[in-house]
Structure formats: C-alpha cells, structure tokens
Write a structure and sequence with these properties.
Elements (H helix, E strand, L loop, with lengths): L6 E6 L4 E6 L21 H12 L13 E3 L13 H19 L3 E3 L2 E3 L4 H12 E3 L20 E3 L1 H26 L8 E3 L3 H16 L3 E11 L4 E2 L5 E16 L5 E6 L8 E6 L13 E3 L6 E6 L11 E5 L4 H9 L24 H8 L6 H15 L7 E10 L7 E10 L6 H13 L1 E3 L4 H10 L4 E2 L1 E2 L10 E4 L5 E7 L29 E3 L3 E2 L1 H5 L2 H5 L6 H7 L2 E6 L4 H15 L5 E6 L3 E2 L16 H8 L1 H9 L7 E2 L2 H21 L15 H22 L3 H28 L3 H21 L4 H11 L23 H19 L8 E8 L1 H9 L1 H8 L1 E8 L3 E6 L5
Parallel strand pairs: 3-4, 5-8, 6-7, 13-15, 19-27, 26-27, 28-29, 30-31
Antiparallel strand pairs: 1-2, 9-10, 9-18, 11-12, 11-17, 13-16, 14-15, 18-20, 21-25, 22-23, 22-24, 30-32
Helix pairs in contact: 2-16, 3-4, 9-10, 10-14, 15-16, 16-17, 17-20, 18-19, 18-20, 19-20, 19-24, 20-21, 22-23, 22-24
This protein binds one RNA strand of 77 nucleotides through strand 11, strand 12, strand 16, helix 6 and strand 17.
Length: 874
RNA sequence: GGGCGUUUAGCUCAGUUGGCUAGAGCACUGCCCUUACAAGGCAGGGGUCGGCGGUUCGAGUCCGUCAACGCCCACCA
C-alpha cells in the first residue's frame, strides 16, 4: 500500500465549515467526523446487518478469476436440529477467515445452505404437528396442519406429509438466518440453497446417475442394519454404540445322544433363528462336534456345529449360536460359512405372526408364544419357556454391553435382509480404499491431527456406503424398474431418466416409453420407492453451491474450493462422502484445506447434548452479552480444541468492544480532519507504530496459518498496551498544539485505522461503527493492514517499551503510597544502561507529563526507577 | 481392546524448533471519580506446570510409563 495524500473538500451546511482532509489510504476519502459523545454497542447488530445487505458488502463478484477467489464450502446446518452454542462456535470461526481473506484482497465465495431433508425433519414434523406419514393414504388437498400438536397422532398422506416438511423447514430456516445475521456472518445471502430444493435434487440425482453409469453405485439384496421405529436401513457412518443393560442366558442345545451343549447368549429370543453353533477350530472342547448337528432347545431344529476363527474360546462357553441375524458377527459367519437364512423379525421390529416353515409342528406351537412380540418381550418369554423346559442353566447373568443404535434412534438396531442402493467407498475394494486414503493425506488438515480420524475411518470401513432410505422427505432415487409378466420387479436393469429431465420423482413421473397407466401393472413399471440418505446430497455441497450442473462458468471460478470448515464428528460422514463423490466425478479433492472446529463443552466441561439437558441457546446469550462478545468467545476457542462455554470470556469480549469505541473517541477527538503520515515525527509515536507493525505481521502470519485465535491475541495484546500506556503517555501532548501535537494526532489516527482493521474479522459491528465515524465505505472491504503501509513512519519499538516500563514503576510507587495516579513526582530517578537511558530520553517529555514528574534524573547502572513523590514523606 | 486429544494459578486459557526468578484475563485484595472509557483505570497476592522415571549443562517444553477426562473406532456370542 502506498502512502498518498489527497485533498478533498466536504461541505458541512450547518457550519459552512470546509474541512480540508488528507486521506491515509488512497482509495478512502475522509469526511467530516461524526463521533458520538456516548458511543454504545446497543443496536449495532441490526443497524449494520441492514446496511451491509443494502450495500451488498458481502456480495460475491463472480467476474473474478479462480486465483482471486477464496471459496468456502459452508456446512449447511440441519435446520430441524436445535439451536445451540455449537451452531455458533464453528460458524463464527469460519467467518473470521472469510473476513480476513476478503480484506486481504480475495473475493470470497461464502454461500449458506440449509440441510432440511431427511429424518430429523420428518421426526420434527411428526412431533411438532402430531402427524405420521402413511404412504397408503390419498392426498388431501384441503388438509391444514393442526394449530397445536395433535394427540392422538393424525395419519396423513405422503404428499401432505412432505408439504408439512417444507412448511416447517422454511420457518426453521428463518430462525437460523436471523441467528447468522445477528452474529454477523459475512455470507452472501444471494448464494443460498436448501438440500431439498430442486437445484440440490437435480445435482444429487445427476451425480447418482453418473455414479450408476460408471458402476460406482449398485443395488443389492443383503442384510442391513435396520431401525425398527423409522423402518429404514441405516449406514455404518450413522451408527452409535450405547451402553445397555442385558443378560447372558446359558442355554442347553442337545447333542444327538441327548447330552447338553451350553451356549451363552444375550438374545435367547433368536433361538428359533439359529442356523448353526460355532466354535474356534482349535478349541479342543468342541473339535469332536465339528461336522455333527445338535438340536435347538424347545424348537428341536437340527443345526450344524461349525468352526470359524472369529469364535473366541474365552467368551462365554466358547461356543456361540449363529442366528440370522442377531448382530454383525452373525452376518459375517452367515456369509463366510454360507449358512441358510432363517429370519423372523419383520421390518416393523416384531416377530412375524406366522410360524416359520423350518419349524416342526411342536416348534410352531412354541413359536406361537413369540408371534407378534418385540424382541425384548420375546426375550422374557423365551427365558420363561427355557426355564420351564430346564434348558436354561441358572439365572440369566445381568451385564452392561455396547449395543448398536442408529444415532437418531431410540431402540437397538435389528438386522434385516432387504434390497438397498450402495455407493462404493473403498469398504470392499482395497485399491479404491488406498486412493481415498491418499486424498486424505493430500488434504491440509487444520489442526493436522484431525487427518488421523479420516485415515482411521477409511481403514475401518467394512462395507460400501448404503445410501437408500425407506423414508419420505428427501431426494428420491431417480429410477424405475420394469415389471415382468407376473408383476415382479426386475432390479437388474433399471429405467433411467434423462439428465435434462431431473429432478424427477419416480412415484409421480413416468419413465420414457411408458404411460402412467402402466404403473404397477405386469409388463409395466414401478418407481423406486426410496429416497437417498441426506449425506448422499450434502456430500455434494461444493457442486450444489458452485452450480456444477448448470453454471460451468461459476463452477470454474470456485472449484475446487479453498476450505471446508466443519465439526470433527462428521469427518466420517460429510467430509469423507464429499471426498468420495469428488474423487469419482472430478478426480480431485473438493477443497485444499479442511478446518475442523472443536466441541463445545458446558461450563462443567461436559459435552453439550440434547439428552443431557444442558443445551444453551445462543440468542438469549447474544441479547445479554452482544454479538461481539459471543464472537469473541468463539474466537478464543483454538482451532480443533474443545472449548467450554465461558461467560467470563464473553464479558471480556464486550469490554474490548466498548474499549474500541472509547479509544476511538479519544483518537479522533482532536481535529476534524485527517493528518498526513508525514507529520508523525515524535520518537514515541514512531516507536508505537513500529510495535504496531510487528503486531500486524504476527496477526497476518497467524491468519495465513488459519489460526484466528493467535491473530486475535496479537491484536488484543497490542491494543490494550496501546490504550493503557501509549494513550496515557501521549495524552498531554495531544491536547496541546504545534507539530508535536500534530504528530500525536496523526499517529493516533493511523493506529486506530490499523486496529479497526485488525479487529474487523472478530468484531465486525463495532469496527464498522467506528470506521463509519470517519471513513467512507466498509471496513470489511478495506485493505488488510500491512506493515509496509506505515514503514516510513515507524522507528524503534523499544522506545515505547522502555518508557512504558518506567511509567509502570512510577504507577507502582504511587499505588504503594496509596496516592492518586495524578500525584506529583518531584524527581524521577532512572538508572539504566547507556542504551536504555538513550531510549527513555527519546520519550522523556511524554513520560514527564504522564508520570507528573517535575524532572527526570538519569544515572548509569542496573535498571531501576525511583519516584520521589511530592506529598510523600516516606 | 486400538487410536486421537486434553491435563499449567480458585476459574478459562497462553507458553511455536528445550534456555533468564512460568504468563494473561476472570475472580480476589488494595488504591484512584484521571477532561476516551467507573459497563473504567492502576497496582498486588496467588502455581511442587496430572504422577513417576529418563535424556540434557538446563525440561512446562523431548522420551518412556501410569492416571484422569473427552472424542473416535473395534466382530457387542
């Protein structure tokens, strides 16, 4: 930045005063100052949010080229989720990067999306209105949502249900947008999207079809983890282990000679699904039994005893029951040992009502006791029956064990067999797994240890990505299937829509070459009833926001993006799935850098979660402390570090913002016009600027390394020293006249301009407010300060440091003597090396005034300061 | 069972290649209504840097080990 003086006349009609102003920055003209007497933070959020929107301050200029653009792949918040401080934390941190890059000369592409499709919305709609979706019902065009939560629940059609989902998410989006605006996120609101909108659906379906065409997507009938409440398959990435009470039941199977062989199981209700017993091949206890059969208790089904390395001789009795399916190990055994399938649990989680065909007449009678029950009910029933028959050895042993849950579910997952769509992710393909691991290595992780989580996740994948969900509110799988002459679905060659026709809903659109009347008819077609998992769409946020499918010009300017900011818990889902999609379609990483924020902990350092009832909602906090304070707190959480909610930190942020107002009022209070930098001649002033230049370098380097906290720290530390020491030292001189006063005025103004810009990424409202007192345009479009800007006005930062040091000693002496800081000092004795004395003497005039010392006497020696107070006898 | 992170003052946290008597803010105590700021200023007290062991002239910092807390993962019979 070059220094230049320009002369601009502005006419103030009231006073006919013509101010000749000199601008510090070439691009920014100055105007008559409008410094309020009692500056306040109140109302700044609403005031500036409105003006920024009017002025288009954060509007993205798409005429810029890729290397002039900084593109952010903003996380679309789940609008149906609750608002909590975690929502604030990461977004504010990202906003500091956006604001820094914008000031540093980049055009920032900072869109906002809303993640509204999927289960969270459905569940919220069900609870909010008291409705449930029954796809069998016809659409009711006159249906109006109940005013209050309806009890009992009303069943409504799928289309009515989806309409309610749209209605409620739009309301939720407004609440989120209000929060983001109040917090001062510098997003371009013209670049927003929702994951359920037509554009997102088109992008999602188009990418799916591309994956299908290349063989990266496929469907398969297989056992899947199943949530019985939502009645949908769930993916590996959505699992959560929860500690749950259970009981080991020691149960006798019977060898051909009638002798018992004991197994231990926590799921005795699945004995009717047993297909084999399994033990380790080297377990001598069971070796004689391999190849023979044993019969199950109560049901008398003959099952083979087989060997497999996963059977652990140390666990239970060393021999386990294999059922189809009790857990994921059963699935492994079933697949690898090619065992039959004997499933009894239905998609609704209940035992099927008809006795299964592999049971004898007697077995069917036993089964009748279980028919229609849920597993936990059947478990108790089986325990009773086994106890009666004498096949239960002793009392069940109560245990706590980890059970797999859907992360949003309430009951343990079951395993059912069904046809689902998958996208390859390396879980069954080592070459692809390696390629994706390399993508992860090539991504810049902030902080870098987060990359290990990605690596572990990819290493631990045990299957492809299950993307189909048996739900309603989401992006439909864009396929139909032919029906053969008997009406059976031919899954192998789906009917595919044209890309140009997307988005489509196969339940209402008709495949090419068919008529609606052929729907569901033999020889006709059937639409795929499923929707895609929400991640299958949100894995495409770069493509959606960058308009990959319909705006190649924009796409070229923003992709691959610069940063993906997100939380650590969705590395396995959002980050990984985005990497997979970009890898397949574009052959690149979707972004250069991933910035991972930490967790929010409540003040007791417990993770905040809805179930713990310790969620703090942001808006009341913003009302109490102000946006700047809440932002300041968020910016004090270092990258990737778990951070406790701390109201003390917020108060400090608020104090900093108020200090900026007051410091600015002082700095701008001496003249109505800007003073040229060449007027800065006094050593103390030049020294202050030298120190400020160092601060600018520190903050800039920190931001370049994505360390907003360090940038804030540097600015803050420097600013408090500026107000506490420099302002006190320069005060008397600044109130005077002549060149030494003018030097102070110019230095104060320049420093203020720099501080406002250093703080702008963190405290956008108050910095903009102060900027508006004396500058045109927005501070958020002003140039990030560079030390070059004032290099010629700066000298040796040690002058101010040394003088401040002496002033500190004088203050200590006055404090010890319990006198006012304004108390006179007759003589101030400063001892120091020749060099120290020389530095102090450069600021001696200001020091004498600030210390109220009549004279300062210097001597050579170890540094010390003695103050001879005027009124003090001691 | 495996991995990652954290552990420094009563609280929240700095302490970047090992280097002067370990820092900040809050809280606490004392003083000061000083013409930017009393929703303020100035000053002060306060720490065996989680434990143990090691490397080194020197360790909050490096190595080993243990512990607590948080998170992630694991085939949970």
């Amino acid at each position: 930045m070059r220094w230049a003086a320009s002369t601009v006349g502005t006419c103030d009609r009231a006073s006919t005063h013509v101010a000749i102003t000199l601008s510090i920055l070439l691009e920014q003209t100055s105007m008559t100052r409008n410094v309020p007497n009692k500056p306040s933070l109140d109302g700044l959020e609403a005031k500036w949010d409105e003006r920024w929107e009017e002025a288009g301050t954060y509007r993205f200029d798409r005429s810029k080229k890729r290397d002039e653009i900084f593109a952010i792949d903003t996380p679309p918040p789940t609008v149906s989720g609750s608002l909590h401080m975690g929502s604030v934390f990461g977004y504010v941190q990202t906003d500091t990067h956006a604001r820094y890059r914008r000031m540093a000369g980049k055009e920032v592409f900072y869109p906002m999306g809303w993640d509204d499709n999927g289960l969270p919305t459905e569940r919220r709609v069900q609870n909010y209105y008291g409705v449930s979706c029954d796809p069998g019902l016809p659409y009711d065009s006159d249906f109006n949502p109940p005013e209050e939560t309806h009890d009992p629940v009303i069943s409504i059609s799928r289309r009515n249900f989806i309409e309610l989902c749209h209605l409620l998410t739009q309301e939720d989006e407004k609440i989120f947008e209000l929060l983001w605006r109040t917090l001062g996120l510098s997003v371009d609101w013209k670049q927003s999207y929702a994951t359920i909108d037509a554009h997102s659906q088109r992008t999602s379906q188009k990418m799916f079809l591309r994956n299908l065409a290349r063989g990266e997507a496929y469907s398969q009938e297989a056992p899947v983890l199943w949530d019985v409440d939502f009645q949908s398959a769930v993916a590996q990435a959505e699992l959560e282990d929860r500690e749950k009470g259970g009981a080991y039941h020691k149960i006798a199977f019977h060898k051909p000679d009638g002798e018992p062989i004991y197994i231990e199981t926590s799921r005795p209700e699945l004995i009717c699904s047993c297909v084999a017993l399994v033990a380790h091949a080297e377990d001598e206890r069971y070796q004689p039994l391999f190849g023979s059969t044993v019969s199950s208790p109560l049901f008398g089904v003959e099952v083979p005893v087989v060997a497999h390395e996963l059977a652990d001789p140390e666990k239970g009795t060393g021999v386990a029951m294999i059922c189809t399916f009790g857990d994921t190990t059963d699935v492994t055994w079933w697949r690898e040992l090619e065992l039959p399938t004997r499933a009894v649990i239905q998609h609704n989680g209940r035992f099927q009502s008809e006795p299964p065909e592999w049971l004898s007449k007697d077995g069917a009678d036993v089964y009748a006791e279980l028919a229609g029950l849920f597993p936990n009910q059947a478990r108790r029933k089986m325990a009773e029956l086994l106890a009666e028959s004498g096949d239960l050895d002793g009392e069940p042993k109560q245990i706590m064990h980890q059970v797999k849950f859907y992360e949003k579910g309430d009951r343990p997952l079951e395993i059912v067999t069904s046809r689902q769509w998958y996208i390859r992710n390396g879980g069954r393909d080592d070459d692809l797994r390696k390629e994706l691991l390399i993508r992860g290595e090539n991504l810049d992780w902030i902080p870098d240890f987060m990359g290990i989580r990605y690596q572990h996740w990819v290493d631990g994948l045990n299957g492809d990505w299950l993307i189909s969900r048996q739900r309603f509110f989401g992006v439909p799988i864009p396929l139909w299937y032919r029906l053969d002459e008997t009406g059976a679905i031919e899954y192998e060659s789906p009917l595919i829509p044209n890309e140009d026709d997307l988005p489509i809903d196969p339940s209402s659109h008709v495949p090419i070459g068919f008529k609606e009347s052929q729907r569901g008819q033999p020889g006709g077609f059937a639409g795929d009833p499923d929707i895609m998992d929400t991640w299958a769409t949100s894995s495409l946020t770069p493509q959606i926001a960058g308009h990959w499918d319909n705006d190649p010009d924009l796409w070229e300017r923003v992709f691959p993006m610069d940063i993906r900011p997100q939380g650590p818990e969705i590395i396995r889902t959002w980050l990984f799935s985005s990497t997979v999609r970009a890898h397949f379609e574009h052959g690149v990483l979707p972004w250069q850098t991933a910035t991972i924020n930490g967790w929010i902990l409540d003040p007791d350092r417990k993770k905040m979660s809805k179930s713990k009832d310790n969620v703090v909602t942001p808006l009341p906090l913003i009302e109490e402390y102000g946006s700047e304070a809440v932002r300041y707190w968020a910016c004090n959480g270092r990258p990737g570090v778990d951070t406790a909610l701390d109201y003390g930190v917020m108060k400090i942020g608020r104090r900093l913002a108020i200090k900026l107002l007051n410091g600015a009022r002082f700095a701008l209070g001496f003249s109505d016009s800007d003073v040229d930098v060449s007027a800065i001649t006094e050593p103390l002033d030049r020294s202050m600027l030298a120190g400020l230049a160092e601060t600018v370098d520190r903050a800039t380097n920190a931001f370049e390394a994505y360390d907003y906290t360090r940038a804030l720290e540097a600015a803050e530390k420097s600013f408090w020293a500026w107000t506490d020491d420099y302002l006190e030292l320069v005060k008397t001189r600044a109130y005077g006249e002549g060149p030494t006063a003018t030097s102070a005025h110019a230095a104060l103004q320049l420093a203020l301009s720099v501080y406002l810009r250093l703080f702008a990424p963190f405290l956008p409202f108050v910095t903009e407010e102060v900027w508006s007192w004396w500058r045109d345009g927005s501070v958020h479009r002003a140039a990030w300060p560079s030390a070059d800007e004032f290099a010629r006005a700066a000298s040796d930062s040690r002058v101010l440091e040394s003088v401040s040091n002496v002033l500190g000693s004088v203050r200590r002496a006055k404090s010890d003597a319990k006198v006012s800081m304004r108390a006179e000092v007759n003589r101030l004795y400063v001892t120091g090396s020749a060099e120290e004395v020389e530095l102090i003497q450069q600021g001696a005039g200001d020091l004498r005034e600030a210390a109220r010392a009549t004279e300062i006497l210097y001597s050579d020696g170890e540094f010390s300061v003695e103050s001879e107070l005027a009124d003090s006898s001691s």
